[in-house]
Amino acid sequence: MEGRPDPADAVDDARADDRGALETLREATRGEHERTERAIEGRFFGASGGIDRRGYRALLEAFLGLYRPLDERLVPASRRHLASLRYRRRADRIERDLRVLGCSEDHLDELPTFPRDELPDVDGPHRLLGCLYVVEGSELGGRVIRKRLEKELDDDALRADAFFGTDPGRVRERWTEFRAELEDRLAPGGPVEEAAEAARATFGAFRRWMS
């Protein structure tokens, strides 16, 4: 998750004080979210909170290993269940960044990937929304990571910005659209609990892979 700050926290200035499905998911996944954030912070940023070019490359490689199979699952699921919110692949952008950082095609091909049989179940619109709550929210967190990178890395490394450098306005617009879909489709009680289960599973997958 691109640094994993809380998606709902990151949009407080976009009227995220609304109660409903978003707030329910936030509360239902708080524990998994915090554990995931600590795992990523500990592995890639360490006690100092800093990161160098090598660490940045390792961070992107880890995200690529997860997003390659996750993209393959989310693209067709979105077409089936959420045609109005077409999922945008992440792996392609990460690969572009790794090439900027000097990775060869052979190296990219040899990187390990997250086991497909351990990916979250997104069979159905409610479970898909739960997974996307984590994935789409992580782009908001990427803005925070980008600011940290700008303090630590040189200009050459910062050219690798396809993944973390998405235009803030586009990120905000995308999140607003997703939040509207979330609130429209998930009612308290049944569907939102199904979404929360998928969101916890998604956080768990990130935590296990990125630890």
Task: Explain how this protein is built.
- The protein contains ten helices and no strands.
- The chain is mainly alpha-helical and 211 residues long.
- Helix 7 packs antiparallel against helix 9.
Secondary-structure-derived class: mainly alpha
Distance between the termini: 12 Å
Describe the largest sheet. Answer: none
Annotated CATH topology:
Heme Oxygenase, Chain A
Q: What Rg is obtained from the alpha carbons, in whole angstroms?
A: 16 Å
**CATH homologous superfamily - what is it?**
Heme oxygenase-like
List the helices and strands in order: HHHHHHHHHH
- Which regions contain 5 or more consecutive residues with pLDDT less than 50? 7-18
- Class in CATH? Mainly Alpha
Please report the total strand number as a whole number: 0
Number of domains as seen in the coordinates:
1
**Mean pLDDT across all amino acids:** 89
**Which percent band covers the strand fraction?**
under 5%
Q: Name the shape in a single word.
A: globular
Number of discrete helical segments: 10
Q: At CATH's second level, what is the architecture?
A: Up-down Bundle
Helix % is 55-70%
The multimeric state of the shown protein is single chain
Would you spell out the secondary-structure blueprint of this structure?
Elements (H helix, E strand, L loop, with lengths): L6 H4 L10 H8 L1 H16 L7 H29 L9 H10 L4 H6 L14 H28 L2 H4 L9 H18 L4 H21 L1
Helix pairs in contact: 2-10, 3-10, 4-5, 4-10, 7-9, 7-10
